[in-house]
Amino acid sequence: MKLASTLLLATACLSTQAHAQIQPPIVLDGQYSARTDEMSLQIIGNRVCFAPDKAQWGRLPRPAATHDAWFCFSNDGEARRLLRVPARQADNCGWQARARIVIDTYQAYVEQGDGNDMARLASVIKVAQPNAIACE
């Protein structure tokens, strides 16, 4: 009986995880940033991140929070290609641009400590010409 209970619980957990990963596509407007300054690289790494417009925060499947909604892309290489992020340059600290994107997987970071939400970039509807981020 104990084995049956354990198998039932394991099946329920797997079913819940599979269900949690199936999400409809979400269209978002906002700004991507690919920061290359030392502090950003230490905190989030060499990743492209996205800050949706505040009016669209409710579209994200995340717990209500007091901090701004933003996330990094789990498929960073593909995100860089789709968003046409320029190569790193010595005379600036990264790139940013307005974009309309489609994500199809969103994972909220709910652990204690440093971390950030992640999403898979499915496609880019439009992206503006990138602007260099000045080093401070």
Describe this structure in words.
This protein is of the alpha+beta class and 136 residues long. 25% of the residues lie in helices and 32% in strands. The protein is built from 3 helices and 6 strands. It is globular. The protein starts with a helix and ends with a strand.
Mean pLDDT: 84
Order of helices and strands: HEHEEHEEE
Query: What count of helical segments does DSSP give?
Result: 3
Range of strand content: 25-35%
Low-confidence stretches: 1-20
Largest sheet: 5 strands, mixed, barrel
- Number of beta strands: 6
Given the helix and strand composition, which structural class is it?
alpha+beta
Principal-axis shape equals globular
Helix share of residues? Answer: 25-40%
Order of the strands making up the biggest sheet? 1-2-3-5-4
Distance between the termini: 64 Å
**What is the radius of gyration?**
18 Å
